[in-house]
Amino acid sequence: MRRVGIFASEIFNDVLNPVTMKRILILGAGTAGTMMANKLRKVLDRDEWEITIVDKHRTHYYQPGFLFIPFGIYNKQDVVKPKADFIPPGVKMVFSEVDKVEAEESKVRLADGSVLLYDYLIIATGTETRPDQTPGLVDKLWRKEIFDFYTVDGAVELQKFFKQWEGGKLVLAITELPYKCPVAPIEFVCLADAYFTEKGIRDKVDITFVTPLAGAFTKPIATKMLSELLAEKNIKVVPDFYLEKVDNEKKAIVSYDEQEIPFDVLTIVPMNMGNSVIERSGLGDDMNYVPTDKHTLRSEKYENIFVLGDAANLPTSKAGSVAHFAAEILFENLMSAIEGRPLMAKFDGHANCYIETGFGKGALIDFNYDTEPLPGTFPLPGIGPFGLLKNTKINHYGKVMFRWMYWHILLRGKELPIDPLMTMAGKKMIK
Amino acid sequence: MAEKNYAGKTVEVSDEGYFVNPADWNEEIAKEMAAEVGIELTDKHLEVLKYLREQFETGEALTIRKVGKSGIVDIKGLYQLFPGGPLKISSKLAGIPKPTSCV
Ligand SMILES: Cc1cc2nc3c(=O)[nH]c(=O)nc-3n(C[C@H](O)[C@H](O)[C@H](O)COP(=O)(O)OP(=O)(O)OC[C@H]3O[C@@H](n4cnc5c(N)ncnc54)[C@H](O)[C@@H]3O)c2cc1C
């Protein structure tokens, strides 16, 4: 990557180099960005294309693993690896905060003052939790009796709390939609049920699941299955609860229509928003997600910007599996754009999520923009079939295996034996 | 599907009572529908309904948060105007489909 501005020597180098390389710049080296860097480097000629990836952090977190930390199933060391380990040779990794994208001029300013130019930009800055957006959340009970398991620190603190807790009211509350990995909160309460049962104090723990949705999940058939599962486990569901604030004195969450739910310990899914660089760059909607063509994955505004992963405003789940399926489509379309062909590959919003339900079992849902999660079986050559919307042991192993696949296959941009577009094979039609 | 009569007009509604054709809507109809659920429509209510219809036209997904940022009412105000499920009730009265969240 050619840096201009303060590094005079690099400008000099550039002048000496008569061959002008074309440049792809990736913002964010999380799940999506890392995958893309690997895919692109394999294909693009090194003499022609420079690939650079920027991230502010050096540590890669396996975020799906955060779910297991509060229950002592994983610890911090099980979910971290150096980001640089996953960046292939021939891709330049820059560690810096991205300050601003100046899309009109196809350049990006970093916090250290340097400027990166690009021919194509891939935005993969993800989404992050913003507990500061809810009054009373980050206050005197924060990380004492209020925890978030969407960050590694929150998950670790909650593990310490649960170890010494003797029971009471455990409330899980979702603040706002959308939030990443929509099934994680359901998994959390299921695992809590199993954890306290195994500890022998389940009768002293009252578990309540609070959501702004009209039911346990978004789509009707999955909601029905998951509601039955939660009822079976004696987990209360409070739907249509739109959280306004936390009352630290009363130890209660309060909704906009003034319902109150008291807690002894609150696990919160804070508001999720795209990174502030999107806002500073004037590239986002009101939650800092980048308006993106849901089929081509190109920015709605700029022809040389593509968006992958949680940073996009796509009407599907914000999940690693979605980023993985989308990456194949984005890759094809980027190749077309480079070669001046129309963008033919169309993403269908495919998501595939294992739902850990406790006691060594799991469920699986598979859906896209148009088809809601349906029951049936999911064909996975060599391993499956997995039961869709069914609570089985093999689905649990699917989730356990996922961590290995994440580090070894997904991030390295290798193919999984799953089609990027959803298949109806094995699904049972209802209605 | 079902048919309903409002303000002398027959409109097609879904099983849950949402309009099938948003174009069937007018203010008179909205007033009668509101009365059915015990809401007396004020200008403020109508302003919200019109905003929802405009947003629906543009294809934007509607959220309570978005309405709260519209400058017409804040979220608390929206709950006061349409107690219970503000987005669902207001969408129904605005003659647009049931709001969906996209997982
Ligand atoms: C508790 C939990 C459980 C989950 N479970 C699952 C699951 O079971 N299955 C599944 O598929 N998905 C799951 N997910 C979701 C999955 O982890 C995310 O969807 C996925 O990581 C998204 O990838 P991304 O690259 O878009 O974002 P991220 O992986 O979050 O990466 C974004 C990167 O951008 C960087 N960045 C952002 N802004 C800047 C800036 N201004 N300057 C420099 N760098 C910046 C960040 O440092 C980060 O490294 C889970 C998530 C959580 C939190």
Salient structural properties:
heterodimer, A: 431 residues, alpha/beta, FAD/NAD(P)-binding domain, 3 domains, 5-stranded parallel β-sheet, 25 strands, disordered N terminus, B: 103 residues, mainly alpha, two-stranded antiparallel sheet, 5 helices, binds flavin-adenine dinucleotide, SQRD (chain A), Sulfide:quinone oxidoreductase (chain A), FAD/NAD-bd_sf (chain A), oxidoreductase activity (chain A)
Write structural notes for this entry.
The complex is a heterodimer of chains A (431) and B (103). Chain A folds into 3 domains: 8-126 and 275-338, 3-Layer(bba) Sandwich (FAD/NAD(P)-binding domain), CATH 3.50.50; 131-272, FAD/NAD(P)-binding domain; 351-410, no CATH class. Chain A contains 8 helices and 25 strands. Chain A has helices at 8-16, 31-43, 152-164, 184-198, 220-232, 276-280, 320-338, 393-410; strands at residues 3-4, 22-27, 49-55, 59-61, 80-82, 91-95, 98-102, 107-110, 115-117, 120-123, 127-129, 146-147, 168-174, 205-210, 236-238, 243-247, 252-255, 260-262, 265-269, 272-274, 305-307, 351-358, 361-367, 376-378, 386-388. The termini of chain A are far apart. By secondary structure, chain B is mainly alpha-helical. Chain B has one domain (2-93). Chain B is built from 5 helices and 2 strands, in the order ββααααα. Chain B has helices at 27-36, 43-57, 64-68, 75-81, 86-93; strands at 2-6, 9-13. Chain B has a two-stranded antiparallel ribbon. Flavin-adenine dinucleotide (FAD) binds next to helix 2, strand 3, helix 7 and strand 22 of chain A. The site of flavin-adenine dinucleotide (FAD) has 36 residues of chain A, from helix 2, strand 3, helix 7 and strand 22.
Q: What is the CATH H-level superfamily of the largest domain in chain A?
A: FAD/NAD(P)-binding domain
Oligomer: heterodimer
Describe the global form of chain B.
globular
Strand order of the largest sheet of chain A: 6-3-2-10-21
Q: Could you name the CATH class of the largest domain in chain A?
A: Alpha Beta
Poorly predicted runs of chain A are: 1-18
Protein name (chain A): Sulfide:quinone oxidoreductase
Organism (chain A): Prolixibacter denitrificans
GO molecular function (chain A): oxidoreductase activity
Pfam families (chain A): Pyr_redox_2 (PF07992)
